[in-house]
Design a protein that fits this description.
Radius of gyration: 26 Å
Number of helices: 15
Shape: elongated
Strand content: 5-15%
Number of strands: 9
Largest sheet: 4 strands, mixed
Order of helices and strands: HHEEEHHEEHHHEEEHHEHHHHHH
Helix content: 40-55%
Organism: Coemansia aciculifera
GO molecular function, one term: metal ion binding
Structural class: alpha+beta
Protein name: BIR-domain-containing protein
Keywords: Metal-binding, Zinc
Distance between the termini: 87 Å
Number of domains: 2
InterPro entries: Baculoviral_IAP (IPR051190), BIR_rpt (IPR001370)
């Protein structure tokens, strides 16, 4: 089976697990499962369910499929264990692990992998293969080419269509918003001087421990801020530390039989974080990744409360069953939201019309009674 189309980016893969109704990830309510939308998408998987495999997932790069997930199954470890020749699994999955709460942790490379890392460092072609959809390909005035990025230790890890995020396979550092005059190797060395990519040139490789949350940094913004402070940078969102809002009310255990029932019967609307990836910041100031994600979560929660009235009403709406028509199942998120809004507006207009008619009848009745009293 060919890989599902249009799932080359992190957000596109994650959205496949957050569909409504029977096409939603069956274990999304069970916190005991490490295989959740965020960790699965980061590990390269998209959701591809089948009648006999309700929890089937597929790698966007190699097309390999996995099913029969257990609570302790780590998407990163499983991907590399079952498909060690997959380029994405080699570059991205070996140094990452899934954590409870749908979080991704950078664990780094073990000290005994020096020879393997040396071989990976020299394998520029493997990293270059990931830049097939590089958005700046073919621009003659651009110094930031796929070849130079791969030679500097980077591979392509877009968060959304058109994104130019590139991540180092050796330290997990991610850079985005490249400018034409940028020099990938120089930018890498300046921001991550202790990266194993550079230390491998030494006779003795130090046991460098990467930060637990490698940052995703805007190249252009951080350069503009150097006039004020050499250490000033503008992190946006780490590709390795996505921390979505945890869903409340999840059960702790979920046997596969229960998951199959959820796939067939559950039609609850998915809490799709449309604004998961924040826009670029307007000032080159340092921001903690956790604070940024928490702020986005708070804004999303406040918006939901304002629309629905109270938190209780919002939770009640999430539990309502959604019976989607065939046309609705093929809608995009934006089209479905627009259809829901139109339906709600029509309902409000009908209700308002009924209220106006009732008031007019009452006014006529009152007017008639007043006339009778005056006569």
């Amino acid at each position: 089976m060919k890989p599902t189309p249009n799932v080359d980016t992190f957000q596109q893969r994650k959205d496949t697990f957050l569909r409504r109704g029977r096409f939603r990830w069956p274990y999304i309510k069970y916190t005991s499962y490490l295989a959740q939308p965020n960790t699965l998408a980061s590990a390269g998987f998209s959701f591809s369910p089948a009648k006999d495999a309700p929890d089937n997932v597929q790698c966007f790069h190699c097309g390999f499929e996995l099913t029969g997930w257990e609570p302790s199954d780590d998407p990163f470890a499983e991907h590399h264990a079952h498909q060690p020749t997959c380029t994405y699994a080699q570059l991205h999955c070996q140094a990452r692990r899934a954590q409870e709460g749908d979080k991704v942790e950078w664990v780094g490379w073990p000290p005994n992998s020096t020879q393997k890392l040396v071989e990976m460092r020299e394998d520029v072609e493997m990293r270059l293969a990931t830049f097939e959809c590089w958005p700046h390909k073919g621009r003659e005035e651009w110094n930031v080419t796929a070849e130079k990025l791969s030679q500097a230790g980077f591979y392509y890890t877009p968060e959304w269509p058109g994104d130019d995020t590139a991540t180092c396979a050796f330290c997990g550092y991610a850079l985005a918003e490249w400018e034409p005059e940028d020099e990938p190797n120089a930018e890498h060395a300046r921001r991550a001087p202790d990266c194993l990519f550079f230390k491998l040139d030494l006779d003795v490789v130090p046991q460098v421990q990467p930060s637990p949350q490698p940052r995703r940094v805007s190249v252009h913004a951080s350069r503009q801020s150097e006039n004020d402070s050499d250490s000033s940078k503008r992190p946006r969102l780490s590709t390795n530390t996505h921390e979505p809002v945890e869903e409340e009310g999840r059960d702790e255990e979920a046997p596969l039989s229960e998951a199959e029932d959820d796939v067939d019967d559950e039609n609850t609307p998915a809490d799709i974080p449309v604004g998961q990836v924040p826009p670029p910041l307007t000032s080159p100031t340092e921001m903690n990744v956790d604070d940024e994600v928490n702020t986005a979560s708070q804004i999303d929660t406040q918006a939901t409360t304002q629309v629905d009235g109270t938190a209780e009403e919002s939770e009640g709406m999430e539990e309502e069953a959604w019976e989607l028509s065939e046309d609705e199942e093929h809608m995009t998120v934006e089209e479905f939201i627009r259809a829901c809004c139109d339906q709600k507006i029509a309902s409000l207009e009908a209700s308002a019309s009924q209220m106006v008619s009732a008031f007019m009848l009452r006014a006529e009745s009152t007017r008639a009674r007043i006339c009778d009293m005056t006569w």
